[in-house]
UniProtKB/TrEMBL annotation:
Keyword Signal applies: yes
Domain Outer membrane protein beta-barrel: 37-209
Domain of life: Bacteria
Signal peptide residues on this chain, from the entry's feature table: 1-19
One Pfam assignment: OMP_b-brl_2
Protein name: PorT family protein
Keywords of the record: Signal
Organism: Winogradskyella alexanderae
Entry-linked InterPro entries: Beta-barrel_OMP_2
Claim: Signal is one of the keywords in the record: yes
């Protein structure tokens, strides 16, 4: 008899969970019908990990990128197009650090120290994306979506205008970068606000390296192109 009531209880619980997640019944967390507003605002914060994609002129050892997690935060402006599409502007500030490790083969025939094999690349980006968010139909307090678009970023730590180059220990990048972005997430409708965790990948279009004065520089001479790519983990509040 106890086993019967236990099984009956599991059936009732599973039916309630199914009703909450997969049925079209009315839900309590409407938070002022936020999805029906033409314009909504919010903010985001999260973590990022940037990388570099290198293309080379000669078949030497790869330049290794030691990645670390950075931090970012910003604002959100959301324009409702219809029940399933939104146009979003998400300006933010992103902080990250990447370390480049060069192989000794790049300095063949030259005198070098251990410091010459390592370049620390600190970046502070003012990031401005224009994104299209495409959502499914809302399922009670959940709404999955995909998001994608284009963005530009100003690297405040680029060193582009620095007259010193790697021979003086200064690694230089271009100030302006252009990206395409794609990601996915889920809107969670809480009692007083909408909380959205999401993951997004970014990929730059343009070559970002500023080459040294010496065309045979061991740091930049073999680099045909250097392009940023990265992953964002965002937490959005609206």
């Amino acid at each position: 008899m106890k086993r019967f009531f236990f099984i009956l209880g599991l059936i009732i619980i599973s039916q309630n969970v199914n009703a909450q997640l997969f049925t079209k019944e009315k839900v309590a967390n409407n938070i002022n019908n936020i999805d029906q507003k033409l314009l909504t605002w919010g903010y985001f914060l999260g973590f990022n990990q940037y990388d570099f994609k290198f293309e080379y002129n000669q078949d030497l050892e790869d330049i290794l990128v030691d990645k670390s997690f950075g931090f970012h935060l910003g604002l959100i402006g959301d324009l409702r197009i219809n029940d399933y599409m939104n146009l979003r502007l998400e300006p933010g500030v992103f902080f990250t650090t990447r370390n480049l490790q060069y192989d000794e083969s790049y300095f063949d025939g030259q005198t070098f120290s251990d410091a010459d094999l390592l370049r620390e690349v600190k970046s502070t980006y003012v990031h401005l994306p224009l994104l299209l968010k495409i959502s499914t139909k809302r399922i009670n307090n959940f709404k999955p979506f995909i998001i994608g678009g284009f963005s530009t970023a100003l690297n405040l730590s680029s060193n582009q205008d620095n007259p010193d180059d790697n021979s003086a220990g200064q690694f230089r990048m271009k100030k302006g970068t252009y990206f395409y972005e794609i990601g996915f997430g889920i809107d969670l409708y809480l009692l007083y606000f909408k909380f959205t965790p999401s993951i997004r990948g970014i990929f730059s279009f343009n070559d970002e390296i500023v080459r040294d004065s010496d065309p045979n520089s061991p740091w930049t001479g073999n680099v045909a192109s250097m392009q940023t790519r990265g992953i964002f983990i965002n937490f959005t509040f609206q």
